[in-house]
Amino acid sequence: MPETDPAPLLVVTGGAGRIATFYRRWLAGQEDGAPASSPWRIRLVDVRDSPGAMPGDEVIAGPDADMADLANVERAVVGAHTVLHLAADPSPRADFYASLLDRNIKATYNVVHAAVGAGVKRVVFASSVNAINGYPSTRQARASDVAFPGNVYGASKAWGEAVCAAFVAQSGGSFSAIAIRIGGVTAREAVNLEVTPELQALRVTYHDLSRLFDKCLTGAPEVTFAVVNGVSNNRYLRMDLEETRALTGYAPEDDAFALAEANAARASGA
Ligand SMILES: NC(=O)c1ccc[n+]([C@@H]2O[C@H](COP(=O)([O-])OP(=O)(O)OC[C@H]3O[C@@H](n4cnc5c(N)ncnc54)[C@H](O)[C@@H]3O)[C@@H](O)[C@H]2O)c1
Question: Which of 45, 197, 238, 250 has minimal CB crowding within 10 Å?
Answer without folding.
Answer: 197
